[in-house]
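ARCHIVE CARD
CATEGORY: sequence design from structure
SOURCE FIELD: tokenized fold
FIELD CONTENT:
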């Protein structure tokens, strides 16, 4: 089974592409990291308790106000109040050292829980016989989940102003500064484009500067290329022969690790030149 990593940056249209891939003619199962990230921090989960323990003492509005309309008694119990995501976002988005440190702490709590949930979802898709499954992960490279993907697709826009306008239209409560910080926190999308183009047939870019019709055509174009590189008959062979699937997976893991190592080394050298 082919693991297709789908990434981009905030407001580049990744969710639109993910939705298109889940429908005909593609009909691929989507494992949405954002959705899983919400589930793993629901009240009562281990990740929720860790977030409250770390951020709670210094973030008074970390939890949403108690729902007085609830008659099950949960509003009286602080451990059942959902996270106030905008308040948590203000703690972790930004370029200051404190924000970066808090973001690392939050990622260190959420990412392991999300990886486990994703692994279970991938196993379920494999057992159900799908030829491919899409891993929809905003920080695919940063979390190193690209290592496990046979193909990586980046959804990109060529103009950052388009990206920020879409974010302002989507989240009207965000200030101009909030928009810039959130875009910056997920990295420059053109850097992801450069990185994925190094992967050859394992990397594809979907450009989403235009309207719905244009992005639909882009999705069809990219998926035709993906199918040529990993036809359904090959997916059937590796499904029937698990040892072969393991060997192919290990080869791909090594390739992606090597490419990631080379990329990071080049970025390190560029910083030294500055």
């Amino acid at each position: 089974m082919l693991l297709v990593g789908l990434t981009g940056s905030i407001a580049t249209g990744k969710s639109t592409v993910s939705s298109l891939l889940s429908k005909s003619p593609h009909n691929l199962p989507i494992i949405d990291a954002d959705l899983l990230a919400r589930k793993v921090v629901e009240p009562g989960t281990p990740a929720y308790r860790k977030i409250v323990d770390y951020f709670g003492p210094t973030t008074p509005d970390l939890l949403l106000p108690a729902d007085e309309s609830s008659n099950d008694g949960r509003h009286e119990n602080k451990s059942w109040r959902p996270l106030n995501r905008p308040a948590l976002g203000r703690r972790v988005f930004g370029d200051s050292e404190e924000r970066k440190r808090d973001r690392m702490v939050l990622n260190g709590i959420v990412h392991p829980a999300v990886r486990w949930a994703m692994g279970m979802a991938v196993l379920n898709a494999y057992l159900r016989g799908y030829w491919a499954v899409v891993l929809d992960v905003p920080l695919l490279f940063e979390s190193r989940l690209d290592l496990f993907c046979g193909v990586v697709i980046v959804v990109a826009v060529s103009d950052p102003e388009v990206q920020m306008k879409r974010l302002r239209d989507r989240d009207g409560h965000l200030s101009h500064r909030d928009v810039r910080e959130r875009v910056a926190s997920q990295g420059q999308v053109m850097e992801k484009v450069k990185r994925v183009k190094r992967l050859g047939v394992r990397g594809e870019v979907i450009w989403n500067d235009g309207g719905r019709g244009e992005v639909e055509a882009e999705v069809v174009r990219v998926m035709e290329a993906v199918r040529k590189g990993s036809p359904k008959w090959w997916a059937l062979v590796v499904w029937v022969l698990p040892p072969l699937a393991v060997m192919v997976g290990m080869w791909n893991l090594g390739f992606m690790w090597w490419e990631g190592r080379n990329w990071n080394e080049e970025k390190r050298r560029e910083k030294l030149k500055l």
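CARD ANNOTATION: The chain is about 55% helix and 10% strand. The beta strands are 2-7, 30-32, 132-136, 151-156, 203-207.
SHELF: design records, drawer C
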